[in-house]
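Review this today:
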Amino acid sequence: MDLKFLGRGAAFNVYERNTSAYFIENQTLFLIDCGESVFSTLIEKNILNDIHDVYILISHTHSDHCGSLGSLGLYCKYVKKIKMKLIVPHDSAYIHSLKLLMELFGNVDTYEFVYEEELDHQFINFEKVRYDLTSHTKDLHCYSFVFEAKKGAVFYSADTNVVDNVVHFIDTYDNIATIYMEGTDLDIPDDVHLNIDKLSSVIPQHLHSCVYLMHIRNHACVEDAIKNGFQIVKI
């Protein structure tokens, strides 16, 4: 599964843009998160020019992960003449939060919901994708994503403060291709982000080179990641 990144910054790291990944397959854009900087980056890079369909995973409703959904939705409607498709789990509270968000953005008829299992075996890049409920902040639902692909399973966690999900992923899959993780150099009690050294302690040594750090706060995060044998996503 080949993901490219539009940005790799944490919420306040405006220099590296909001963390968002994508791939294009048969003129379909598959996008993971759509923070404040994402729509402008899509336009600047001419990524939408030949796109006929747009599918989006949203990990949670903090603005650095969903802040330009409204602009993208309106662009899809008025310029591309399509409805973007928001992929969702069977979580009524989460779906309601997305509906409310899109209504506030003035996007009532610019999108449609697609349940995660409706994408099974619809793409070449992966066979299945599933939302995996994780912990980030107490006031909203936050998800990681698990992709099953022919070349190996892929884990993607845009924001989390626990290792439970990635540990379960490692225990579940024998063939692991890539683990995309957020991480911070800070080690603060009850932080909403995951300390890189703590992450390193639960990743088997032979998988360290498969871990790619994203949602980077500063250069100290890069240094900690490299020290632990992790990779850094490129933008």
Notes: The chain has a mean pLDDT of 96. Residues 61 and 98 are 8 Å apart (CA to CA). The first strand starts at residue 4 and ends at 7.
